[in-house]
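Please, structure for the following, as tokens.
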Amino acid sequence: MILFTKLFLAHLIGDFLLQPNKWVVHKEANKIRSRYLYLHVLVHFIVAMLLLWDLDMWKWVLIITVFHYIIDALKLYANPYFKNKAIPFFVDQVLHMIVLYCCAFHTNLLEQTQMLIKQIDWSLITAIVFVGYPASIIMAKLLEGMSQQIALDHKSLPNAGKYIGIIERLFVLVFIILGRWEAIGLLITAKSVFRFNDLKESNSRKLTEYILIGTLLSFGLAMITGIIYMWGQ
């Protein structure tokens, strides 16, 4: 596991800490003709070798570097086809992680993968998935009648409320699993403080009640999910 950790650290350093935005822009404009693409993969090779500090690993680091070049080059040509640039970015990172994983555990790849699969906590994954989009849809259905009576705020970011709800429910679930119930109170307080000015300026009783009901419902779903998960452990 320490080998994968070192390779992952080298990836983080090479892809984020030692890659200026100027390089990224130049690569996107010039694709494989960009000198910074080759400098970038060279940095990855050097950083990985320094962290591993083992000359016997140079072949595997070279394999990682070659695949890094191929994946990055493919991303550069795929980028224009995606309106949401986050998609090629995350696909790129996942592919890099797969390469690192395969190289780090090349001696026992099948056994290591089987062991990881057996260790998956499916109850936890189910809880995490539920407090995400399914909980958002459930809340939208429950609050549908009320939302029609609230004037839309066109200054709000698209789907901002939905994403805020998903993040806060994930925090609540984590706090329950860790047994830090007091942190949930702090989270509610923090959200109330941020919402105070909006409610004060709107001076709308309906909006206040709608936000209060939505907040309590969101926290309630997350808390119930967390309690059920802990009860099943």
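The chain has two domains: 2-118, 122-231. The chain has a mean pLDDT of 91.
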